[in-house]
Write a structure and sequence with these properties.
single chain; alpha+beta; 6-stranded antiparallel beta sheet
Length: 854
C-alpha cells in the first residue's frame, strides 16, 4: 500500500506540475516567435547600388555589382539568359553563392561567365540574400562580340597585318613620305590636315620641313596626291625670309588660311618678301595660290596708307571665306583699300573697325555697304563677328558667301561681340536688311543655303548690345528666323532658341536647341534638341545643360558659334546630324569604369527614320574607359574632333549620305583594341558597306596597338577614304614616325621595291686582303672594341616592352574590376621581367664585344 500510495502520492504531485508546464512551454514558444519576428523585422534588406559588365569577349564576360549588405550577413549570385530574368528562367552563374559579408558599405562583387555564344545579347541581374530575404537587381544587358568573319575582298593582298581587320575592304595606304627629315607630321599636339571632297588629295602642315620644301618657316604646308603607284608629296609653302611678328603674336596656325573643297586653290597670308611683283611687302599680304599651276596672285596690290612699317605691324588681313572655284575671296581688314571704303582706326572702341572686302576678277570690292549705300563704320564681318584673335576661322561664316559669289551675308556690329545687324549684299549692287526684316534689333547669323537664297538668324531685343546672355545655359533663348531673299521676308522657326547645331545645304532640314516644349518628349526649361522640316519641329533628345546653348569662351557645345568649340555636324542633305553629350540618351551607362562624372559620347540622329543611336557607346554594354584629350579638359569616351585651326581644318566626321560616322574613342570598342590610347573608329548603319547588323556596326580604323594616340585627320565626302595620323607602321617602309595613312575602301599599293645594290662593276669586288702588320699590336691596348658588334647587341625591344608595361599599369589603375586589375598588373610585371632579361642579355653581349676588341 505504501508503495502504491507513494506511487499515488507521486502521481498526484506530478500531474499538477505538467499542467503548469504546458503554459510555460507555450510562453517560451511565443517568446521565441516574438524574438524571431523582431529579428526578422529588424533585418535590413541588402541594397544593390549598381550592376555592370566588363571584359566582354566573343564567349566570356565578367558580371559586376555593388551590394550593401546593410549590416546583415549577405550572399549573392548572378543570373543570365536570353530574356529578362525578372520574367523568365535564367541560368545561375556556376560560381555559386558568393559572400558579401555584413558590413554597412557597398561591396564590389564579380563573377565570370564562360561558354557564351558569339554575337548574342544576354540579360543578367544579381540577387542578394540576407535575413530579410532575397533582393533582385534590375535586369541589364550585354552583348558578346561576333566571331570575326574572313572578308572576301578584291584587294586582299594588301589587307595584311593590322589591315586584315579593317571593315569595308579597306586597306592602309601610307600618304606621307618615308623621308621626313626624322620629323613627325604634327603641329604641337595634333596633326592638322584637310582632304579634298574626292579623297584623292590631302593637305597638311608640319613643324619639320622635308622633301622639296623651299624653306622652314613656323609651319610648312604640303599637298599630297594619290596616283596609280601611290601618293606623291610636294611642299607648297613659299620661301620665307625675315619672318615678322604681326600684331601681338606670331600666327599660331599655318599661314595657309583656307582651301577650296578640291584643294586646287588656297589663300596664303604672307609675312615675308613679296611673292609677285605687285605684292605689298613689307606689309602682311594675302595671295591666292593655284595648286595646279604652282602660281601666285596677290589679292592686295595697294599698300596701306595708315601703317608705317616696320614699327607698326598691326596690318593683318583676315580671310573669312572662299567660293568652291576660288573665284571669290572674302577678307576683312582695318584699312581703306578701295576709294569707297572708310578708315576709322580705333574710333573710341577697344578694337579697330574692319571693312569687309570681296576679291574677284583681280579687283577688290567693298561689301560692308549699308542699304542706304553708305559704308558701315562699325565692326564688320562676314556672317557674324565672334573673336578679335586674328588667326582666322573664328567668326560664324558658314555659307556666308554663295557658291557663285553673288550673295554675301555680313554683319555690322557695335562694340559687343557675337552680335550685329545682319545684311545681305546682292551682286555687288544692293544691300538688303536681314535682321531688319523682323526688327531693328541686333542678332546673329548662323548659316545660309549654299545658293544664298535663305539664311538663319536669331535676334535679340531692341536696345540690347549682344545676344549671348539669352543663348547661354539658363537663358530663355531668342527667336530663330529663316530669311527668304526672294521675298525679302523672314519666317519664324521657333520663338525661343539657344543655338543652331547645323542645317542642310538647302536649309530644308534645320537642327536647333530650345528650352521650349515644341514636341512630345521634350522637357520645359531644359536643353532640348530638335529637327525642323516642312514647318514641323521633331524632338530628338534632351542634353545636359550647356550642351545645347552658347558656351563661355572655354566651353564646348553642340551649338557653339566658335568652330573650335562646336561638337556637332550635319551632312549636306540634312538627313542625319551627329552631336555629343554627357547625358545617357539611349540607356547606356556612360559612367566611366573607374567612376566619376558621365563621359562624353557621340550620337547620330537619323531624321528619316527618327532614330537616335549612340555610335561611340561600347557595343558590349560595358561601362566606358575614358581619357582627357590634351587639347581640352573634358572626360571623354567618344568624341568628334573639333576645328582647332583656321578655316581649312574642319574634319569631316559624317559621310555625305549620312551612313558613316568617324570619331575618336578612348574606350576599347572592339576586342583587338588593347593599347588603352585614343583610337579612330567608324560607325556605319546596317546595310552600308560590310555592316549586316540592323543596329549598325562599330569598327576600329587605327591599329589599337600603338603606344601613342591615333587621331582622325579627315575623310572624303563618300567615306571611302579615312585619313588618320598614327605612329603605327602599317607599311613595311614606314620607320615608325607619326604619319598620315588613308584607310581606303578597295585600296592598297604594293610595297616599294628594296633599294637597288649601288655597287657596279669593279666596285663590287672584295677589298684586297690587309697585309700582316710588321709590329704586333700592344697587349696593353684597351680600345672601344668592335663598334659594329656592340651596336648589334642593342635590344630595341627593351624600350617597347617597358612602354607597353607602363600602358598596362595605367589601365590597371583606372579599372575597378579586381580580376581585370590583377590580370593587367600580371601582364605588366611579365613585360617588365622580359625587358629586364633582354637588358641583361644586351649587357652580356656588350661585355663580350669589349673583350673581343682588347
Amino acid at each position: 500500500m505504501r508503495s502504491h500510495a507513494k506511487a499515488a502520492s507521486t502521481d498526484s504531485t506530478t500531474r499538477p506540475h505538467r499542467r503548469h508546464l504546458l503554459p510555460l512551454l507555450a510562453a517560451i514558444v511565443a517568446a521565441l516567435a516574438l524574438a524571431l519576428g523582431a529579428a526578422s523585422a529588424s533585418a535590413v534588406a541588402p541594397v544593390i547600388a549598381g550592376t555592370t559588365v566588363s571584359a566582354v569577349t566573343a564567349e566570356t564576360a565578367v558580371l559586376e555589382a555593388e551590394i550593401n549588405p546593410g549590416e546583415e550577413a549577405t550572399t549573392y549570385h548572378f543570373e543570365y539568359g536570353p530574356a529578362e530574368c525578372s520574367a523568365n528562367p535564367c541560368t545561375r552563374v556556376p560560381a555559386g553563392e558568393g559572400n558579401v559579408g555584413s558590413g554597412s558599405e557597398p561591396v564590389h562583387v564579380s563573377d565570370e561567365v564562360t561558354g557564351l555564344a558569339p554575337g548574342t545579347t544576354y540579360y543578367f541581374r544579381v540577387v542578394a540574400v540576407n535575413g530579410s530575404g532575397p533582393v533582385a537587381g534590375a535586369d541589364r544587358t550585354f552583348a558578346t562580340y561576333p566571331s570575326p568573319e574572313p572578308a572576301a575582298c578584291p584587294n586582299e593582298a594588301f589587307r595584311t597585318g593590322f589591315g586584315a581587320g579593317l571593315p569595308d575592304c579597306r586597306a592602309y595606304e601610307m600618304v606621307t613620305p618615308v623621308d621626313k627629315n626624322n620629323g613627325d607630321i604634327r603641329n604641337g599636339i595634333r596633326t592638322f590636315g584637310s582632304s579634298s571632297t574626292s579623297g584623292e588629295k590631302i593637305t597638311y602642315s608640319s613643324f619639320t620641313a622635308f622633301g622639296d620644301a623651299e624653306s622652314n618657316p613656323l609651319f610648312t604646308q604640303y599637298l599630297t596626291t594619290r596616283g596609280a603607284d601611290g601618293w606623291t608629296t610636294e611642299g607648297i609653302s613659299p620661301r620665307q625670309s625675315n619672318l615678322r611678328i604681326v600684331g601681338f603674336l606670331i600666327p599660331l596656325y599655318p599661314f595657309f588660311k583656307v582651301f577650296t573643297p578640291d584643294l586646287s586653290k588656297a589663300v596664303f597670308l604672307n609675312l615675308s618678301a613679296p611673292l609677285t611683283p605687285d605684292g605689298i611687302s613689307p606689309w602682311a599680304d594675302l595671295y591666292l595660290r593655284d595648286n595646279t599651276t604652282d602660281s601666285w596672285q596677290a589679292l592686295i596690290t595697294s599698300p596701306p596708307t595708315h601703317y608705317d612699317p616696320p614699327e607698326d605691324n598691326e596690318f593683318w588681313p583676315e580671310p573669312q571665306n572662299i567660293t568652291p572655284d576660288g573665284s571669290h575671296v572674302l577678307f576683312k581688314i582695318d584699312e581703306n583699300l578701295t576709294p569707297d571704303s572708310p578708315y576709322n582706326g580705333v574710333n573710341g572702341s577697344s578694337y579697330k573697325e574692319d571693312n569687309l572686302f570681296d576679291w574677284h576678277d583681280g579687283e577688290l570690292e567693298l561689301v560692308s555697304i549699308l542699304p542706304n549705300e553708305e559704308p558701315s563704320t562699325l565692326l564688320n564681318s562676314a556672317g557674324t563677328f565672334n573673336s578679335v584673335v586674328r588667326t582666322g576661322g573664328e567668326d560664324s561664316t558658314e555659307n556666308a558667301i554663295s557658291e557663285d559669289g553673288s550673295r554675301i551675308y555680313w554683319s555690322a556690329g557695335g562694340e559687343a561681340f557675337n552680335t550685329g545687324r545682319v545684311y545681305v549684299r546682292v551682286d555687288g549692287e544692293e544691300t538688303l536688311p536681314v535682321t531688319g526684316s523682323v526688327s531693328n534689333a541686333e542678332g546673329r547669323f548662323w548659316t545660309a543655303s549654299s545658293d544664298g537664297s535663305k539664311a538663319l538668324f536669331t535676334i535679340g531685343e531692341e536696345g540690347e548690345k549682344g545676344t549671348d546672355s539669352k543663348l547661354q545655359s539658363g537663358g530663355e533663348g531668342e527667336p530663330l528666323y529663316e530669311f527668304h531673299l526672294a521675298s525679302e521676308s523672314s519666317t519664324l522657326i521657333a520663338p525661343h532658341t539657344t543655338g543652331v547645331l547645323g542645317a542642310s545645304q538647302d536649309l530644308s532640314y534645320i537642327y536647333f536647341a530650345s528650352p521650349e516644349v515644341l514636341d512630345a518628349g521634350a522637357t520645359a526649361g531644359e536643353s532640348n534638341l530638335y529637327s525642323y522640316h516642312d514647318g514641323q519641329a521633331t524632338f530628338i533628345a534632351t542634353v545636359t545643360p550647356g550642351e545645347g546653348s552658347v558656351p563661355p569662351s572655354t566651353g564646348l557645345s553642340n551649338v557653339a558659334p566658335l568652330r573650335e568649340q562646336k561638337t556637332s555636324a550635319v551632312n549636306p542633305s540634312g538627313s542625319a546630324v551627329v552631336f555629343s553629350s554627357t547625358r545617357s540618351l539611349t540607356g547606356y551607362d556612360n559612367t566611366p569604369a573607374g567612376g566619376g562624372s558621365p563621359a562624353w559620347e557621340v550620337y547620330r540622329y537619323d531624321s528619316q527614320s527618327e532614330t537616335l543611336t549612340c555610335v561611340s557607346c561600347n557595343p558590349s554594354g560595358a561601362r566606358p574607359l575614358t581619357g582627357t584629350p590634351k587639347e581640352e579638359e573634358q572626360v571623354v569616351a567618344g568624341r568628334i574632333p573639333r576645328w582647332v585651326a583656321p578655316l581649312q581644318f574642319k574634319p569631316r566626321v559624317i559621310s555625305d549620305d549620312g551612313s558613316k560616322v568617324f570619331f575618336e574613342s578612348f574606350d576599347a570598342l572592339v576586342p583587338r583594341d588593347t593599347n588603352g590610347q585614343r583610337d579612330v573608329y567608324e560607325w556605319e548603319e546596317g546595310g552600308s558597306g560590310s555592316c549586316a547588323r540592323s543596329a549598325g556596326c562599330v569598327s576600329l580604323i587605327s591599329s589599337g596597338k600603338s603606344s601613342a594616340e591615333s587621331q582622325l585627320v579627315d575623310s572624303g565626302a563618300s567615306g571611302r577614304d579615312v585619313f588618320i595620323s598614327t605612329s603605327s607602321s602599317f607599311a613595311p617602309q614606314d620607320p615608325g614616325l607619326v604619319d598620315i595613312y588613308d584607310a581606303r575602301t578597295d585600296g592598297g599599293f604594293p610595297a616599294p621595291p628594296a633599294p637597288a645594290d649601288p655597287c657596279v662593276g669593279d666596285s663590287c669586288q672584295s677589298p684586297a686582303a690587309t697585309p700582316p702588320s710588321a709590329t704586333p699590336a700592344s697587349a696593353q691596348f684597351h680600345g672601344e672594341g668592335d663598334l659594329h658588334a656592340r651596336r648589334s647587341c642593342r635590344e630595341p625591344r627593351v624600350a617597347k616592352l617597358l612602354r607597353k608595361a607602363r600602358s598596362l599599369s595605367r589601365r590597371a589603375a583606372h579599372t575597378d574590376n579586381g580580376a581585370k586589375t590583377k590580370h593587367l598588373r600580371k601582364q605588366a610585371h611579365s613585360l617588365r621581367s622580359k625587358a629586364k632579361a633582354l637588358g641583361r642579355r644586351e649587357k652580356r653581349c656588350t661585355r663580350r664585344a669589349r673583350r673581343a676588341g682588347r
